[in-house]
């Protein structure tokens, strides 16, 4: 019998998330600067007669076990392309917060694709895998690629970015998640309410910040901190006002930058070194403004197979 195959996939933080106007297809054009960070999910694929999902980890209860699970959808998409039955047991060891704005579900989809491709011997090309990823979700191609990258279009059109060093991060994980579509809707609502409008004609085309790209290239945390931005942050704060206290607690503890991660509600804090990150993490844990605190660094590689 074929041996089980395990893929390890990182979470992401968006160091810049510039959101353009609402497109006719319901998505928004982005300038999305992704950084893969060292929180990982592991997806293990074992040969089985039918498709089955199991999940372990603190947030396991919030993850769907049916065909809506992104890992299951990825397996089905690969099997369909190759005209085979998606017979596989996918076990997800979940360490990335669920619905936290860190692309946890996307990580599981990318991991399932890689693991199933190896298990079934479908030998998909990199382009085919990227294609399937983009079909399944805007963040999923980046989960496969990792490192640092600029995402254009709805975030799926990636250009790898050079980074000149390691950046140290603290993540404050909130109680409960935020729905990504709801946060984009709130962003549009706030734009309409301000009188500026939310359509493609009303909002400037999103562009990557040259200062931010320079800071990444130089590995300069202070310069990166000055350049980070997230257009979804006002919407996440509007839906979850308590995040303001979390952001303040991290800033008061000396974080170089404090921002909502993607669609939130996880908050991300940039620190100058691992010691500073630990001090920010300790202060956040003591502040009572979040459920858990994690420290890590990035960039790290994207999805890859590991020895189980
Ligand atoms: C917030 C981010 O995580 C930043 O990286 C992503 O933009 C979200 O990516 P994702 O979770 O992979 O999102 P998808 O599954 O592709 O889309 C979910 C929903 O989010 C909204 N959405 C997503 C991406 C995008 N560029 N514009 C959008 O408006 C749409 O309402 C869409 O129906
Ligand atoms: N494998 C999966 N892991 C977690 N959630 C999943 C998975 N598959 C489907 N979901 C559903 O997707 C929702 C969003 O989960 P996810 O953890 O990907 O959010 P997120 O990290 O905020 O996403 P993003 O940062 O890409 O916007 C969950 O509430 C859950 O119902």
TrEMBL record:
Top-rank EC class of the record's enzyme: transferase
Reactions listed under catalytic activity: 4-CDP-2-C-methyl-D-erythritol + ATP = 4-CDP-2-C-methyl-D-erythritol 2-phosphate + ADP + H(+)
Pathway: Isoprenoid biosynthesis; isopentenyl diphosphate biosynthesis via DXP pathway; isopentenyl diphosphate from 1-deoxy-D-xylulose 5-phosphate: step 3/6
One GO MF term attached to the UniProt entry: kinase activity
All copies of domain GHMP kinase N-terminal, residue ranges: 69-147
Coiled-coil residue windows: none
Keywords: ATP-binding, Isoprene biosynthesis, Kinase, Nucleotide-binding, Transferase
Residues of the active site: 12, 139
Gene3D superfamilies in UniProt: 3.30.230.10, GHMP kinase, C-terminal domain
EC number: 2.7.1.148
Known role: Catalyzes the phosphorylation of the position 2 hydroxy group of 4-diphosphocytidyl-2C-methyl-D-erythritol.
Protein family: Belongs to the GHMP kinase family. IspE subfamily.
PANTHER family in the cross-refs: 4-DIPHOSPHOCYTIDYL-2-C-METHYL-D-ERYTHRITOL KINASE, CHLOROPLASTIC
HAMAP family linked: IspE
Name the record gives this protein: 4-diphosphocytidyl-2-C-methyl-D-erythritol kinase
């Amino acid at each position: 019998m074929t041996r089980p195959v395990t893929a390890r996939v990182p979470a992401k933080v968006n160091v810049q998330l510039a959101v353009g106007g609402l497109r006719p297809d319901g998505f928004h054009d982005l300038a999305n600067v992704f950084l893969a960070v060292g929180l990982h999910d592991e997806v293990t694929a074992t040969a089985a007669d039918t498709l089955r999902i199991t999940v372990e980890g603190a947030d396991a209860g919030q993850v769907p076990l049916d065909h809506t699970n992104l890992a299951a959808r990825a397996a089905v998409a690969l099997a369909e392309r190759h005209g085979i039955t998606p017979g596989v047991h996918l076990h997800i060891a979940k360490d990335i917060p669920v619905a936290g704005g860190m692309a946890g579900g996307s990580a599981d989809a990318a991991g399932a694709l890689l693991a199933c491709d190896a298990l079934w011997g479908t030998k998909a090309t990199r382009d085919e895998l990227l294609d399937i990823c983009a079909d399944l979700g805007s963040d999923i191609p980046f989960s496969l690629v990792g490192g640092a990258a600029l995402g254009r279009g709805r975030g799926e059109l990636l250009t790898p970015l050079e980074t000149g060093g390691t950046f140290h991060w603290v993540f404050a994980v909130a109680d409960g998640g935020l729905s990504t579509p709801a946060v984009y809707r709130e962003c549009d609502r706030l734009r309409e309410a301000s009188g500026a409008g939310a359509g493609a004609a009303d909002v400037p085309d999103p562009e990557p910040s040259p200062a931010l790209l320079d800071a990444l290239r130089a590995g300069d945390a202070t310069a990166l901190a000055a350049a980070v931005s997230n257009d979804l942050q006002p919407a996440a704060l509007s839906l979850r006002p308590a995040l303001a206290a979390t952001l303040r607690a991290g800033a008061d503890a000396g974080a170089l930058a404090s921002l909502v991660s993607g669609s939130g509600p996880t908050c991300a804090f940039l620190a100058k070194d691992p010691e500073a990150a630990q001090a920010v993490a300790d202060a956040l844990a003591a502040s009572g403004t979040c459920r858990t605190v994690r420290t890590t660094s990035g960039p790290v590689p994207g999805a890859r197979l590991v020895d189980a």
